Amino acid sequence: MRNKIFLPFAWAVLILLPLVLVGSLQLAQLLLKQSWEQRLAPQTATTILVDKASIVWEEEGRELQIGGRYFDVRSIKEAGSKLVLQGHYDDTETAVWQLLKHALRHSRANGYQLVLLLQMLLPIAWIRFHLSAPSIPLCWQGAKTDVLPTPPPKVLLAPPRNTGSC
Fold this sequence. Notes:
This protein is an alpha+beta fold. The chain has helices at 2-34, 36-40, 91-132; strands at 46-51, 57-59, 63-66, 69-79, 82-89. Helices cover 48% and strands 19% of the residues.
């Protein structure tokens, strides 16, 4: 009885654990994006000069990645074809982003490994169940239990003939 409750619960935990990890990392990333002003206010601002064409914004006018690190923008000034950005490098958000990227890559690989594991364990569990299942009761064992009824033969009818009248 205990195994009937424990095994499905254990399988559910194994399957849902990567999803919970990815979800918690995405929630942490969202909370960090919402609270960037309070976290980075005491730090001194960093000034960066960047080409307009080479900027790829994470959030327009607010956040971008420079060299694999998140940079939270406080002010933007144009200087010809370049932008002068003042803000802060957000290493906490960068670390969460890298963990999330790593977890997503491994959760996909672990998902494939989990499918392979299930494909290997399911036949073993099936065989084990059938070997441990009770045999057919004696009252059902008779001469006719091994004979399966055959389905009735299909009756083929000829298609209707064309009588020529429309």
